[in-house]
């Protein structure tokens, strides 16, 4: 593998509407939080540069719309993702139950090469709302374990709890997927003159 | 050969009469009804708003296209674009501002925001249309606020120091001022190449571009005539006819032209005023250049294996070739003519040079090319493998790119000729045939291990050339200055470009006043480009184009055997122009074997 200074990772954030995907991203990228809710329409794109284990990484974060009516761009958005972040709201049981569907949806649409080992990270957001909590940490963790030991983090976009750590894990998980196969054997591809079609008709005089 | 030459000559003669007749008819003020092939427009500066309208005179910030609405959509399979206003965008403006705010914040270097919002394209065609339109507007609007704020911070710099100005903002500002951008990304939305600015800058934009393209692509026409989105897997099985493709749109003064070559997307953003057709053609060349470094089969295989594949690692070190090609796109007639230039030389010298190369050629050599002054002096190829001009231009680009690599001795590089064979590499042995005069010899083999053979072959050619009388003739050709129109003594003729259709070669004289000034040179280039696009317009192709302005009279003439673009004195009468064109064609005919390589060296 050629040594490139910077690695680019495409990270997709998925989850039900209102679980705090955009807030998490804003907290992570801009260190800002707003209580106001605004639905994401289609998707937002943000970038963040991080250093992971001495490697410079550009994270291209695709914040998608949770609302179903904005899902028309799904296929294109999922294509070529390096990591997928599933977010739910710890105060809304439904959003937790949806994780399964979001994960399946991603695997079907993105059809990654090795679905068993594709890196997911699960974030249980809004842990600052302790009184309204409906999903326990244990319940979330056991679901993640079941799905092949998906890393799980309890976050609060509002109080910036664990946001940095979570995204660092995301970057690391994606980096581990880097292909180790030797792609340079392709350079041996030589033109077989016997295979070259006779282009007499459409070629030019010279 | 002689009989066909005679035939060609006869055809020319009839066409000359045709030209004469048409121009004469015109000059007598007769209408050419029923002659859709001719388009003559000489009402001077003002024009009548028709096809002949030309803005090229007013420097380069005047778009050549007619005034159009701010956002223009053009899709291969354009569907209904009802403008029914869906209430989709209530609070978008606020969010955009928030992003811009974040941009300028302390994290501006590390983070940049960009939004793309497209609505519910749940299969309804009309709706998709309006959503797409909105998305485009979002894109252009999403750009401008960011752009303006940074740009103004630059201009105000002279008055007061802006403390919050960041390197990123500076970069952004200079990026925005460029006339032409070329961005290449993968269909996953990952940036691969950008002509201006850093890759970091286009990371979020690449996402937006990908969203725009896929939004159109995923809405396709079903056999029953309805439209809807389909899963990725099925998309791959769709035929081109079923797929919609985003081709271009216009936002403000910028044209956004797309070239979808899945798994790669290429985008040109241009305010140069060039026709969409030419911008697209230029993207094709950039794509070919990319393939020449990577091969199509590698790209397809790699992206098939990993849809998140990062092609950038494959391009490292090759940027200078791509950059050189891009810089030439707007200055070299070759690209819009799809033709290459030969170095004018005594035909017998050219023949002998070709014969000498053929004499020393080993069976491993497939193609041989001698290049002097950046023009082809000799070409050897197997009889059954004609070369497309596009591939020849790629080879010329290799040796025209300023690089020290060629000074140190022999260069051995893989080079895919995509129009010849896009699935594999040829291997090019590049050396000087004569270093002081900058004459290059390219020997191409399909065998990766043929370096030694080609190297020996090259040495034999060099020493054999040095011993022969031929060298003097070759050097004379390289040292000779380009021919000048003024020496031809053709009344009122100032400059011309002539494309020889049969060989895909063109010839052009040296620039003389007033066109020797850089600004005028550029203007002349745009003028020819414009005439070419007018003549080859899909909806209304024209064989003959004539127009006079305050600066000059320009003529374009396309026949089966040649294309001629020429400028004359502004006051030249049509009679003079007609006579001059005839005289010019006569001269070209007489000099044909010197100006063009009419028969390449063929091997079996």
Automatic annotation (TrEMBL), chain A:
Keywords: GTP-binding, Lipoprotein, Nucleotide-binding, Prenylation. It comes from the Eukaryota. Coiled coil: none annotated. SMART domains: RAB, RAN, RAS, RHO. Pfam families: Ras. Gene3D superfamilies: P-loop containing nucleotide triphosphate hydrolases. PANTHER family: RAB FAMILY, RAS-RELATED PROTEIN RAB-7A. Belongs to the small GTPase superfamily. Rab family. This is Rab7 GTPase. It comes from Salpingoeca rosetta (strain ATCC 50818 / BSB-021).
UniProtKB/TrEMBL annotation, chain B:
Residues 363-462 form the FUZ/MON1/HPS1 second Longin domain. Residues 1-166 are annotated as: Disordered. InterPro entries: FUZ/MON1/HPS1_longin_1, FUZ/MON1/HPS1_longin_2, FUZ/MON1/HPS1_longin_3, Mon1. Residues 492-592 form the FUZ/MON1/HPS1 third Longin domain. Residues 180-219, 239-325 form the FUZ/MON1/HPS1 first Longin domain. It holds the Pfam family Fuz_longin_3. One of its GO terms (biological process) is vesicle-mediated transport. Residues 67-82, 101-110, 156-165 have a biased composition (Basic and acidic residues). Residues 141-155 have a biased composition (Polar residues). GO terms for cellular component: Mon1-Ccz1 complex. Residues 54-63, 83-100 have a biased composition (Acidic residues). This is Vacuolar fusion protein MON1 homolog. It comes from Salpingoeca rosetta (strain ATCC 50818 / BSB-021).
């Amino acid at each position: 593998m050629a040594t490139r200074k910077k690695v680019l990772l495409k990270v997709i954030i998925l989850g039900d509407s209102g679980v705090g995907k955009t807030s998490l991203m804003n907290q992570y990228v801009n260190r800002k939080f707003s209580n106001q809710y605004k639905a994401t329409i289609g998707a937002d794109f943000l970038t963040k540069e991080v250093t992971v284990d001495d490697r410079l990484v550009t994270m291209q974060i695709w914040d998608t719309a949770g609302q179903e009516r904005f899902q028309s761009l799904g296929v294109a958005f999922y294509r070529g993702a390096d990591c997928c972040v599933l977010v739910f709201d710890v105060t809304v049981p439904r959003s937790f139950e949806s994780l399964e569907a979001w994960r399946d949806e991603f695997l079907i649409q993105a059809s990654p090469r090795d679905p068993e080992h594709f890196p997911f990270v699960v974030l249980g957001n809004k842990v600052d709302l302790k009184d309204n909590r409906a999903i326990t940490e244990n319940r979330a963790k056991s679901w993640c374990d079941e799905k092949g030991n998906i890393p799980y983090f309890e976050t609060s976009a509002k109080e910036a709890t664990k946001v940095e750590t979570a995204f660092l894990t995301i970057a690391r998980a994606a980096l581990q997927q880097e292909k180790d196969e030797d792609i340079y054997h392709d350079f041996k591809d030589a033109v077989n003159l016997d295979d070259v079609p006779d282009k007499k008709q459409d070629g030019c005089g010279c | 050969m002689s009989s066909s030459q005679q035939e060609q000559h006869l055809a020319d003669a009839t066409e000359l009469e045709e030209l004469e007749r048409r121009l004469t008819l015109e000059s007598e003020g007769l209408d050419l009804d029923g002659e859709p092939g001719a388009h003559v427009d000489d009402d001077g500066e003002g024009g009548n708003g028709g096809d002949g309208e030309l803005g090229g005179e007013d420097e380069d910030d005047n778009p050549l296209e007619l005034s159009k609405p701010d956002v223009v959509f053009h899709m291969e399979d354009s569907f209904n674009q009802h403008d029914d206003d869906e209430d989709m965008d209530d609070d978008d403006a606020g969010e955009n501002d928030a992003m811009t705010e974040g941009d300028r914040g302390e994290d501006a270097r590390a983070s940049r925001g960009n939004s793309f919002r497209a609505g519910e394209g749940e299969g309804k065609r009309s709706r998709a249309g309006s959503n797409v339109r909105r998305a485009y507007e979002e894109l252009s609007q999403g750009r401008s606020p960011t752009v303006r704020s940074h740009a103004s911070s630059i201009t105000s710099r002279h008055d007061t120091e802006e403390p919050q100005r960041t390197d990123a903002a500076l970069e952004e500002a200079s990026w925005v001022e460029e006339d032409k951008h070329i961005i290449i990304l993968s269909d996953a939305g990952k940036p691969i190449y950008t002509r201006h600015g850093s890759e970091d800058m286009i990371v979020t934009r690449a996402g937006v571009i990908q969203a725009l393209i896929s939004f159109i692509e995923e809405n396709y026409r079903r056999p029953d005539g309805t439209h809807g989105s389909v899963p990725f897997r099925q998309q791959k099985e769709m035929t081109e006819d079923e797929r919609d493709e985003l081709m271009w749109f216009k936002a403000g003064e910028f044209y956004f032209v797309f070239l979808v070559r899945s798994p790669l997307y290429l985008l040109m953003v241009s305010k140069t005023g060039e026709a969409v057709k030419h911008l697209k053609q230029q993207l094709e060349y950039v794509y070919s250049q990319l393939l020449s470094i990577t091969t199509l089969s590698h790209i397809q295989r790699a992206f098939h294996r990993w849809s998140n594949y990062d092609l950038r690692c494959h391009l490292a070190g090759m940027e200078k070739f791509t950059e050189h090609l891009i810089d030439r796109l707007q200055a070299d007639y070759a690209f819009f003519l799809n033709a290459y230039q030969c170095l004018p030389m005594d035909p017998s010298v050219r023949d002998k040079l070709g014969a000498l190369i053929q004499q020393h050629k080993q069976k491993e050599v497939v193609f041989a090319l001698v290049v002097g002054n950046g023009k082809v002096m000799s070409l050897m190829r197997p009889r059954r493998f004609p070369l497309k001009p596009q591939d020849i231009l790629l080879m010329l680009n290799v040796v025209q790119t300023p690089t020290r690599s060629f000074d140190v001795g022999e260069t051995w590089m893989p080079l895919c000729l995509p129009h010849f064979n896009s699935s594999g590499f040829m291997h090019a042995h590049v050396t000087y045939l004569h270093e002081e005069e900058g004459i290059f010899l390219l020997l191409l083999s399909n065998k990766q291990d043929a370096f030694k053979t080609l190297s020996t072959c090259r040495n034999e050619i060099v020493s054999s050339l040095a011993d022969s009388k031929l060298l003097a003739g070759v050097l004379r050709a390289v040292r000779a200055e380009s021919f000048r129109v003024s020496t031809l003594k053709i009344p009122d003729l100032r400059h011309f470009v002539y494309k020889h259709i049969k060989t895909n070669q063109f010839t052009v004289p040296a620039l003389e006043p007033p066109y020797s000034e850089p600004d005028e040179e550029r203007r002349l280039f745009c003028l020819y480009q414009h005439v070419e696009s007018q003549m080859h317009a899909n909806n209304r192709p024209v064989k003959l184009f004539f127009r006079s302005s305050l600066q000059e009279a320009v003529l374009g003439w396309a026949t089966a055997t040649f294309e001629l673009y020429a400028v004359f004195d502004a006051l030249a009468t049509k009679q003079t122009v007609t006579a001059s064109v005839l005289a010019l064609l006569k001269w070209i005919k007489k000099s044909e074997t010197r100006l063009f390589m009419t028969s390449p060296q063929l091997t079996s």
